[in-house]
What does this fold into?
Amino acid sequence: MQKENNMSRRNTKEKDLSAWYLEVVQAAQLADYAPVKGCMVIRPNGYAIWENIVRLFDLKIKAMNTRNAYFPLFIPMSFLHREKEHVEGFSPELAVVTIGGGQKLEEPLVVRPTSETIMYSMFSKWVHSWRDLPLKVNQWCNVIRWEKRTFPFLRTLEFLWQEGHTAHATLEEADKQTMDALKAYTDFIQNTLAIPVITGKKTDSQKFAGALYTTSCEAMMPDGKALQAATSHNLGQNFSKAEAFNISFQNKDKSIDYAWQTSWGLSTRIIGALIMVHGDEAGLILPPKIAPIQVVIVPIYKTNEEKESVLKACNNLFLNLKDQFSVTVDDRDDVTPGFKFHDWEMQGIPVRLEIGPAEIRDDQVKIVRRDNGQKEVIANKQLPAQLRILMEQIQKSLFARASQYLHDRTFEVKTYDEFKEVIEVKKGFAIASWCGQTACEDSIKEATKATARVVPFNQPKIQKKCVVCGKSGQSTAVWARAY
RNA sequence: CGGGGUGUAGCGCAGUUGGUAGCGCGCAGCGUUCGGGUCGCUGAGGCCGUGGGUUCAAGUCCCACCACCCCGACCA
It folds into this structure.
């Protein structure tokens, strides 16, 4: 009873999302706080998810004919200053090294917040002819941004990501690459992570520091706030121009031109979205396609004789499944089955199989789904095939559930009052037109803390009148408070 | 950097009018149980955030500092 009371003290997702989230991160052993404020340790359970993200998304990077490389962690301070908007955007959050080997450095070194500048200084050496283009590289690495307020996975001083960087001969090619990367993200985030997103262009005030334009995938968290899940930028010639990094080449027609560039990134932040979007009161829920362990087998026995035969059956089952699924047997002898059920549910393992004397007798196995708790018993010989179907179903149902939520919390609004109601009361996304002026955008942020998350590619068909000033609206955006 | 709050065992917390520290979880050992967090016994673990002051005596009162958390401004 006392144990029950203690357990029931657990924060609920609905009542206090952030407390619930922090508890899941700790209890599922995804991450822990590091000695340095704002930094976290990604523990094996969390890192295994990241490894799967890297493995699967890297395939998509390669499919875009982009190769992996590695550039230095340190960037000469002066490089940041070569692109005006870029340095203005990143200056407040830079970590800077001023001493090396006990000596004061002549030029301070910036610990990379992103690698445009260090990469493009090299690009300018490598690009001379139209034949050198396109140049496409990606790197998986860590970056540092000195944030004032941090939160595990969603915002930490240091985070892991991939950053793709390309240089092209024409604007059109850069446009296409920007969109190709965004499509890769959208596909990966929706189909593998089962997180629905809204895609579109950022407004000028929200775009990447130094970009021509920025595109992004926006996901909705359970509190109705938006989370930028991935971004892809068309940098135009802002970095390649002569006064910046001078990435110039001689074209087929002998003229000299500057390269057209893109950059795009996906970070460990997405793990935070994964936790929030799918999790429930019992803890984490992982979509099968990304789960480091997809199936856990829990043996159930009383006597020693039972134990022997049950463990043997578990092992046979393990051998039967291990080539098709990531599977583990929980043969811990010092905890009860009930404890194991809760334990694996907390860790979000998609499917649990139970084997006891009853199942052995009937040559069956009990299957329990993590996403909805449904239990069924099926014959052993049907197992691998049934399990494959089940995984597919779980993957789809998680996406469907999250999509429904996104849909239910997204509202088209015509007036500023409706707008405020969506943001402040209904806690969701507001689809609203606005005149395109930064002044109106600012006043919305001032009044509601909401920002234009994205101007969707498929523009909703609603009246194009600015919700603030009433002038005829240029475009329609999705507005929300953001993480 | 502004506003608010908290520092006592690994974690979550009690600690009365000042008298030298306790509970739950967890941890270790033994037994018991095992189809939804089994139960019992035994045990280990504390510079009470730091420094100073008041007092015969400070976790408790006073002062200063430090750290962390929450709310703002800034942000993938």
